[in-house]
Amino acid sequence: MPTKRETAAFEAGIKLGAIYHQFVGSPVSAHTAESLETAIKESISLQPHVRSVSVEIDRDMLRENVFGYGELAGKMIRALVEIDYDGEKVRAKLEYDQKTDYPLMSLLD
């Protein structure tokens, strides 16, 4: 049986995975990036055990097409979640890692 801390860490991974897999590919522009950040944050904050969520889209990576928008890529997302599972708290992040050229998820504490 998993400990409360292991369950809290699992929940953090679920939330970060949801951010990545539900929103990558979303249409986004410099004009709509802030509202997409808010939508992601509010969506994830509805899930169980979430204490807080922050989401930032790296606008410097945004490449708009001839129609005036681009697609959200995983490497453009920086997210932080704080989980409280029955008193056990963990923080985890999703952030682009330049060394591996990949968006990585990790526990902070």
TrEMBL record:
<comment type="pathway">
    <text>Cofactor biosynthesis; 5,6,7,8-tetrahydromethanopterin biosynthesis.</text>
</comment>
<feature type="binding site">
    <location>
        <position position="11"/>
    </location>
    <ligand>
        <name>substrate</name>
    </ligand>
</feature>
<dbReference type="InterPro" id="IPR007181">
    <property type="entry name" value="MtpD_C"/>
</dbReference>
<feature type="binding site">
    <location>
        <position position="105"/>
    </location>
    <ligand>
        <name>substrate</name>
    </ligand>
</feature>
<dbReference type="GO" id="GO:2001118">
    <property type="term" value="P:tetrahydromethanopterin biosynthetic process"/>
</dbReference>
<dbReference type="GO" id="GO:0004150">
    <property type="term" value="F:dihydroneopterin aldolase activity"/>
</dbReference>
<dbReference type="InterPro" id="IPR036839">
    <property type="entry name" value="MptD_sf"/>
</dbReference>
<protein>
    <recommendedName>
        <fullName>Dihydroneopterin aldolase</fullName>
        <ecNumber>4.1.2.25</ecNumber>
    </recommendedName>
</protein>
<dbReference type="InterPro" id="IPR027508">
    <property type="entry name" value="DHN_aldolase_MptD"/>
</dbReference>
<feature type="domain" description="Dihydroneopterin aldolase MtpD C-terminal">
    <location>
        <begin position="3"/>
        <end position="107"/>
    </location>
</feature>
<dbReference type="Pfam" id="PF04038">
    <property type="entry name" value="DHNA"/>
</dbReference>
<comment type="function">
    <text>Catalyzes the conversion of 7,8-dihydroneopterin (H2Neo) to 6-hydroxymethyl-7,8-dihydropterin (6-HMD).</text>
</comment>
<comment type="similarity">
    <text>Belongs to the archaeal dihydroneopterin aldolase family.</text>
</comment>
<comment type="subunit">
    <text>Homotetramer.</text>
</comment>
<keyword id="KW-0456">Lyase</keyword>
